[in-house]
Amino acid sequence: MTASSVAVVGAGTMGSGIAQVFLEHGYLVVLIDVIEDQLVRGTAAIERGLARRVRKGQLTEEQRSALLAGLRVSTALEDAISAPLIIEAIVERLAVKEQVFAALDEGAPSETILASNTSSISITGLAAATGRPDRVIGMHFMNPAPVIELVEVIRGLDTSDGTWRTIMELARALDKTPVTVADSPGFALNRLLIPMINEAVYLLMEGVASAEDIDTVIKLGANHPMGPLALADLVGLDTCLAIMNVLHGQLGEDKYRPCPLLRKMVASRHLGRKTGRGFYCYDA
To answer: Edge-to-edge, what's the strand order for the sheet holding 150-155?
Structure first.
């Protein structure tokens, strides 16, 4: 992709992380969020991420300042439409995403690619909210986006070969490894990962082992860098539950039924790192 600008809609953990990835690769980025406080938090997260790169000797302070100069923030969705690629990274709710895609479709030029960072919602369904289903695609970054190499590229039913090739090439230019995934509930990663997290929550609820010991089993026994409960806290328990609901609702199998403890923790707003408390407690 030769264009030098991108718009990211949603300034939460994933949106700000995606914005940082593009900034680090020389793109001009406009970060959009209707909640001004979210933009402040998202910008601060990007600044911390780039400062971390300076401390590691991967950037100079001058380079960091130059990259930040390429970031613009806005609460107006129409400020996204001048970019040739718009990536949606908002809350994992179909109706809200459909509204955003319909609005972007109405305002953006016909050649603009509309991508979603959704972790479970149908790309074909989102494309149906637009008049350009051939230009709609999934571009699922992993958390934390500046660190994790994988990007799932999800083709909807009508996604064109040209759109797919453009996003595959772009992912590689961002030093990511893209994998092509069919439009299926949970795609590939979360179809594997989220049931493991859910089963870990069942083990905890049933008193089989403590959270620390469950995570140690997976880290040492399966050589994973992080245990499933710590990972759930990083992803966000509300996000994990949303994905489980999609898997259970669309596939209809009991093995995808969300654990009652997971539901209870989300209802209590114990969502993991972002709220300071999940399966573990975190410093403010």
So the answer is: 71-74, 28-32, 5-9, 85-88, 113-116, 136-141, 150-155, 177-182
